[in-house]
Design a protein that fits this description.
146 residues, alpha/beta
Length: 146
Amino acid sequence: MRKKKVLFVCVQNSARSQMAEAWLNHLYGDTFEGHSAGLEPGELNPLAVQVMREEGIDISGNETKSVFDKFKAGEIYHAVITVCDESNAERCPIFPGIVSRLHWGFEDPARVTGTAEEKLVKAQRIRDEIRETLTRWVESGGAGSA
């Protein structure tokens, strides 16, 4: 059986899309192949690295990638899922052959405020929300809704 390729997109490919890619590959790597990219690739977010490490998943060696490079390369995906805010999601290119295009808006860990402990707690909540949404999507068949 061929794995379904899924691309997660956020603005910088620094946290949300990286976490979603890691969760998909970690939990459902037997049937799905997760990828991620950003509209304006930046630097990997240390909070994302930390909260995923807490779950036994190491993303510290990941690089940020451009969604436009993936588009130009003609890559085909079963689903493209934007995990940023709605206005940025609209900037994502339309990939050829997509079975579904979804939007799951999550708060950006780079924009959380508070003490170091408060930021960590918020990043953990975002990590858990991504996992829960992803799990619901996969368990519903991994098609056009979450």
